[in-house]
Design brief:
Distance between the termini: 79 Å
Strand content: under 5%
Mean pLDDT: 81
Low-confidence stretches: none
Oligomer: single chain
Structural class: mainly alpha
Radius of gyration: 31 Å
Largest sheet: 2 strands, antiparallel
Number of helices: 4
Helix content: 40-55%
Shape: rod-shaped
Strand order of the largest sheet: 1-2
Amino acid sequence: MAKKKKEQCPYCGDWFTYLSRHKCKVQARIENKEDEKSATERRIERIEERKQLVTRKLKKEEIEILKIIDRKGNLFFDELVKLVDLERNKL
């Protein structure tokens, strides 16, 4: 059986029998330099992703409660329960 001819990687210069199976780290570095972002840009993106995960839409009841708190100012929890007439577990 004849040996397969080796091929040379154009990026790292090493010789391989199966060049298509070779995962060249040099090639990955060269191609990723174009897409590479600065550390601050990546950090800002991660912060925005976390904010999207944390934020959610408020329920109708929650919006009403916030409006009452804004109108009245300082409220104790018991007073808020009397004003809203909701079960304690829902607050």
